[in-house]
Design brief:
By secondary structure, this protein is α/β, with parallel strands linked by helices. The protein is built from eight helices and eleven strands. β8 (about 150-155), α4 (about 160-170) and β9 (about 180-185) form a beta-alpha-beta unit.
């Protein structure tokens, strides 16, 4: 009896150690939330033991499950395009966007914000599984969301920009996203362009220079990298602007259709600022670029 009791207590302790509390971002204007999987049901785990928490409405920490926040374009406005959005946060938290996916929805573009599992000091396989899984889910449910499975693209800002570029090159030919929108992305991961803290969260505390170079987006580009548009500000003192220009150079060297816009001010993190002076220019440039994609597809 005593042995059975001890075994029962050990099982309870084990369950409590692996089952973290997950959260819903209640301030999101998403139309639907879809749960993909968590550390217990996915192929990979990020080994996160802490409970998920939300700070300041839209900053999510300790993610241990993958969930999709879907902003579905109305059927009468739907263009067929959809954008999978990877939030930034230095790979230490997720800074959920809200105004941008709402804007996309109003333009007839379905937006999906991915609450992905953070790499948690070297468990990047779980994060990649979530990032790819979001694209696969959209394509498998294209009819439900009034989208064209051939027009699913990716978007990311800061660390999310790096992840979006990574996915653009990581997925096999024929399955890659249709396009990428990268906003002040932390594209280069070596010590000259990023911080050790962010890199160690991504690749582990024992990250080497070779590891960082391999994770730099410019070293991933091939001629099959999808069309890419990039945005940044000249006075960004968090992620150096040349981190993006190096990626742009790699895109051009491989013949990838690409465009880059550099604004004179804004610093870092301006995509959610409704009063940022260049906000309308930024949104107009994205809208124009979708027209360019359409024209290219017709050729």
């Amino acid at each position: 009896m005593k042995r059975a009791f001890i075994l029962s207590m050990l099982l309870c302790a084990l369950c409590s150690a692996v089952a973290q509390d997950t959260i819903i971002v209640t301030d999101s204007d998403a139309d639907e939330i879809v749960h993909l999987w968590d550390n217990q049901t996915a192929k990979y785990s990020n080994e996160m033991e802490k409970d998920e928490v939300v700070k300041k409405k839209f900053k999510v920490y300790n993610t241990s499950s993958a969930d999709l926040y879907i902003f579905k374009a109305p059927k009468e406005k739907a263009t067929g395009y959809s954008v999978v959005i990877y939030p930034g946060g230095g790979y230490g938290y997720l800074s959920f966007p809200n105004s941008f996916p709402v804007w996309l929805r109003e333009k007839g573009i379905t937006a999906v914000v991915v609450k992905y599992r953070l790499p948690n000091y070297g468990h990047k396989e779980a994060m990649l599984e979530d990032a790819v899984g979001a694209i696969d889910y959209l394509r498998a449910n294209a009819e439900k969301y009034n989208i064209d499975p051939e027009k699913v693209g990716v978007y990311g800002n800061s660390a999310g920009g790096h992840l979006a570029a990574w996915i653009s090159n990581y997925m096999p030919d024929g399955k890659k996203p249709a396009f990428a929108i990268l906003v002040y992305g932390a594209m280069e991961r070596n010590r000259y362009y990023n911080t050790y803290a962010a890199n160690s969260r991504l690749a582990g505390k024992q990250i080497t220079t070779a590891d960082a170079e391999a994770l730099s987006a410019s070293n991933m580009v091939t001629p099959s990298t999808p069309p890419t548009i990039m945005f940044l500000s000249d006075d960004d003192d968090v992620v150096a602007p040349y981190s993006s220009t190096i990626y742009y150079k790699a895109l051009k060297q491989h013949g990838v259709k690409s465009s880059m816009h550099i604004y004179p001010s804004g610093g870092h993190g301006w995509s959610g600022r409704l009063k940022w002076p260049y906000r309308q220019q930024w949104l107009s440039a994205i809208e124009d670029w979708f027209e360019v994609l359409d024209n290219n597809n017709k050729k």
